[in-house]
Amino acid sequence: MSKLKQGFVQIYTGNGKGKSTAAIGQAVRAAGLGLKSYIAQFMKEYPYNELFSLKHLSEWISIEQFGGDEFVYKKELPGEEELAKARKGLQTAREKMLSGEYDLIILDEPTAFLDLPSKIEVMVLLHQLAAQTGKSILLSTHDLELALQLADRIWLLAKGREMVAGVPEDLVLSGKFNSFFEREGILFDKETGSFRVHNPIAKSVHITGAGVEAQWVANALVRNGFTPSTDPDSEYRVEVSEEFPGEYLVYRNSEKMFTANSIESLLKLLKAS
Predict the structure, then answer these.
(1) Region 204-272: CATH code
(2) Domain residues of the chain, as ranges?
(3) Contact indicator for 45, 67 with CB cutoff of 8 Å
(4) Which of the following CATH numbers is that of domain 9-181: 3.30.450.40, 1.20.210.10, 2.30.110.20, 3.40.50.300?
(5) What does residue 153 show for φ and ψ, rounded to 5 degrees?
(6) Relative to the CA of 240, which of 16, 24, 135, 196 has its CA 20 to 30 Å away?
(7) Are 13 and 150 in contact (CB under 8 A)?
(8) pLDDT tens column, 198-243
(9) Paired sense of beta strands 236-240 and 248-252, if any
């Protein structure tokens, strides 16, 4: 287990297949060192090959499945029955962590069923449990932005590429994170830690003002294809009023164009200009 640090939450993420296989590989390596692992698989009720293979290592590796993935293929939200299975799986995993019986806990897509607040709640709980028990917790997930915010260490996987691992901040600042996920029309924003649509012919807009309101104005502009600019001489400038919250003054080439009284109206007027 020389490459897995104890007491940390570590995440496998990336495009395509390989995350679950890599995580299970860590359990097999741990078994070679005489360490015990518990694996909880979510959205997997089918008897995948690993279930048969791991029977030969049952003394060191325990694996359980919670919930199916049929709702994904039907493009539906999970029903109450599937949500109940997921909740049971998370509770079971928590009990296994606290039992002291296992050296490594692996959770395969544990947050796939959950809304964003619940995902964050689960990740915070896992951090607390990892620190409390001193055990290493390994997750596989597609939630890239959540992984960046809450993982102690991330392992990046993609077909035809060598695995890359590191602290989230190092992966972002080195450019390794965005190299795995950026594609034509989609860029990773290092400043916000999120992905955004890139429009090469988008209007460039300089935003003046500070605080939460200015940040949400910038978020709305990016989402709608505008490009925030640090150049005060940009063709367009949006002034977020500190004196009158919810009021946005828009200038073009230093000439005042209009005043918007909501972000929705600001977007409509900018698009029409």
Answers:
(1) 3.40.50.800
(2) 9-181, 204-272
(3) yes
(4) 3.40.50.300
(5) -155, 140
(6) 196
(7) no
(8) 665 568 899 998 788 988 998 888 878 788 788 888 889 999 987 8
(9) antiparallel
* Strand pairing class (61-66; 104-108): unpaired
- Give yes or no on whether 9-181 and 204-272 have one common fold: yes
Q: What SS3 state is found at 247?
A: coil
Torsion of the alpha carbons at 120, 122, 128 and 132, rounded to the nearest 10: -170
Helix axes 263-272, 212-223, angle to 10 degrees: 40
Structure-derived torsion over alpha carbons of residues 80, 81, 87, 91, reported in degrees to the nearest 10:
150
- Candidates 103, 96, 95; CA nearest to 7 is 103
What amino acid occupies position 55? K
- Per DSSP, the three-state class of 43 is coil
CA torsion sign, 167 to 171 to 177 to 178? positive
pLDDT tens by residue, 126-162: 888 888 888 888 888 888 887 888 888 898 887 778 8
| Residues 32-57: tens digit of each pLDDT | 999 999 999 887 766 667 777 788 88
